[in-house]
């Protein structure tokens, strides 16, 4: 188990393991290429490393999360893969699962979002630092806020600034976007080659205990804390 950024992981597992409650987190955005899969697999690995029983459901026809799981080595913390691309499989999860992360399909509109939101405790919307992503995400978040369970506060809605280059024009653009919508990101993740390099091996930064990855893992602390 890693010492950062989950020093409290073992304690929480010990305190809650007596009565498991499945917590489902949907990672979604209408804009393709925003990093949904990277966030889904990284969160799944982080919680699996923390001692929870984790499942990863892939609802995207491209099945990127499931392809990543096929590459995952046996020595890594176990994550149970689920194919949610067929409507009849929606909501299925192994008995005893603590956390279920759902990699939503791209171009998620209106009624198609509601069945997935209905399964969720939280929705995470990644956004890239570009004008097109900001506009698409603004409309997506507005539409999500019309869904009854989100409007009534039964499902949390968090935004993650993804692949941000500090002090860049893109970062400034995102700052203006968050100011305009009146909601700040729960976490800001900088652009790092480590995500793609490790994904090829079926791994994430939470599978690597080396200090080299500690600053990158630390960027996920606010998001993990918000979920847990």
Query: Rg to the nearest angstrom?
Result: 17 Å
General shape: globular
Task: Please report the distance between the alpha carbons of the first and last residues.
Answer: 17 Å
Overall pLDDT, averaged? Answer: 85
Strand residues, percent: 15-25%
Order of helices and strands: HEHEHEEHEHHEHEHHH
Q: How are the strands of the largest sheet arranged?
A: 3-2-4-1-5-6-7
Low-confidence stretches: 1-19
Q: How many strands, what sense, and barrel or not for the largest sheet?
A: 7 strands, parallel
Helix proportion: 25-40%
Briefly note the structural class of the backbone. alpha/beta
Number of extended strands: 7
Describe this structure as you would to a colleague.
The protein is of the alpha/beta class and 228 residues long. The chain has ten helices and seven strands. It has a seven-stranded parallel sheet, with helices on both faces. The chain starts with 8 loop residues before the first helix and ends with a helix. This is Chromosome partitioning protein. InterPro entries: CobQ/CobB/MinD/ParA_Nub-bd_dom, DNA_Partitioning_ATPase, P-loop_NTPase.
